[in-house]
Amino acid sequence: MNQKLTNKQMKNLEALANMSDEDIDFSDIPPLTDEFFEKAVSNPFYKPTKQPVTIRLDSDVVAWFKSQGGKYQSNINHALREYMQEHLTDKKDVANG
Description:
about 0% strand; Cytoplasmic protein; BrnA_antitoxin; mainly alpha
């Protein structure tokens, strides 16, 4: 589903890209309060893409994850994600990877 944009669509995108923040009408968007974020939930449809990598781990670490049952690679990924989130100071850190 890789469709090319029409000339009209391209012009609309260019107009949006050239629009300054002051020209955007936010009046129909409710403010995001602390209460909103307290009730917010993670996107249930979000599924990060996987990237195959070769990594050298200590054999006792691998053995321990395998002994826990289940999918040990997924468990290692989960542990690394928790560590990353605890140490993430800026969401841009991940994007600039």
